[in-house]
């Protein structure tokens, strides 16, 4: 657990509130929160909330490793209970989590017996990390928790860095200032382009196929000149830029603009909060966002108006499978691999039933949705890990080894390989992680392992 500085400890000199005043706990919160964390939140009589920077630092006041931008000590019992009520609300949980972590909020709750719950929260990646317990909890991207924290904190965060869905500011183009940020050529092309195309892209680069700067194109739409005003204003507004960026890069949007034989490409990640600017000339730039919402909204409007036939990502509308996968990930975090396995297998059964009822063309179209594919191959991969552990007599990575019959060990290995193959079929391609994952150690001595590596390297 990270060491706290004396400056941070001062933040908790707040007036007490009685544990019996804690709001009721929803069933969704009971499933999502580890029991020890839930009890600490219920008993907490001192609460502070924070706005933080997502880039770790070694010095200065921090929550965990993240620098504090703004803090508010909640002296009023109603404010403390508002945070608790948000944490216990059923609508606070249940989104599909991303693999990055770009936290901008935090809360610390301390009970009279000095139990502490430090929560570092990312509403973009949909994860909340409990530092003392080492647990990660999947949350919703908006709703009571986000609303409570934003209401209690000041409305304007120093240094910008608002994620999509943050401050809704009407964009104002300023060409001179935009040239300093984007580069002269890029800004001037966007000021008066002859043609603009917006894209939805796959975040993993590919060596071939229809791509933008190496990223496979899922959908494209040429922007009509009459509809370019909002996009131009957002791109050339200096207030769009200047926030913090995370170290990962998971782009889902792109833009190409052309003028007089020259072009400029933007590859944009609203999760990691920055974009790459690359033109027909030698210059390129990395630009971070201060308020990305107008640009995000303009791109989504352009893409949603008339997506390319057969290429627009469409998620599978079956909330049961999504709920099952989220529950499964939560149980892995808790170390309950048996419950995780059951939830994953339930979710996969729902997906397979839904997909089987669709025409082949519709199945293929839905599998082009990056979120759906990521959820599905993650489920298959994690099941492979669980069955690999079971083949060695383990119910979790750190659990005791139990005797297992040779026939049962062989069956679990076969199931593990079958799920790993399905993961690869659905898009899993991380060969390095697969080769080093300790959960798959039991599979590496099997002759089938060579085929797995061959498929991953294709």
Descriptive tags:
39% helix, disordered N terminus, 458 residues, 14 strands, seven-stranded antiparallel β-sheet, alpha+beta, Dna Ligase, domain 1
Topology at a glance:
Layout: H1 6-9, H2 27-32, H3 35-43, E1 46-52, E2 62-63, E3 66-73, H4 77-88, E4 105-110, E5 116-122, E6 127-130, E7 135-138, H5 144-152, H6 175-182, H7 184-191, E8 195-201, E9 211-212, E10 215-222, H8 229-235, E11 253-259, E12 262-269, E13 274-279, E14 284-288, H9 293-305, H10 319-334, H11 337-356, H12 360-366, H13 370-391, H14 406-425, H15 431-436, H16 448-457
Antiparallel strand pairs: 1-3, 1-4, 2-3, 4-5, 5-6, 6-7, 8-10, 8-11, 9-10, 11-12, 12-13, 13-14
Helix pairs in contact: 4-5, 6-7, 8-9, 10-11, 11-13, 13-14, 14-16
Question: How is this structure best described in words?
Answer:
- With 458 residues, this protein is an alpha+beta fold.
- The chain has three domains: 6-152, no CATH class; 175-305, Dna Ligase, domain 1, CATH 3.30.1490; 319-457, no CATH class.
- The protein has 16 helices and 14 strands.
- It has a seven-stranded antiparallel β-sheet.
- Strand 11 (253-259) and strand 12 (262-269) form a beta hairpin.
- The protein starts with 5 loop residues before the first helix and ends with a helix.
- Residues 1-20, 155-168 and 305-318 have low confidence and may be disordered.
Main beta sheet strand tally, sense and closure: 7 strands, antiparallel
| Chain-averaged pLDDT | 78
The poorly predicted ranges are: 1-20, 155-168, 305-318
Q: Which bin fits the share of residues in helices?
A: 25-40%
| Overall number of domains | 3
Helix and strand string, N-terminal first? HHHEEEHEEEEHHHEEEHEEEEHHHHHHHH
Structure summary, number of beta strands: 14
Radius of gyration: 24 Å
Structural class of the secondary structure composition? alpha+beta
The tally of helices reads 16
Strand order of the largest sheet: 2-3-1-4-5-6-7
The termini sit apart by: 41 Å
What share of residues are in beta strands?
15-25%
Based on Cα principal axes, name the global outline.
Answer: globular
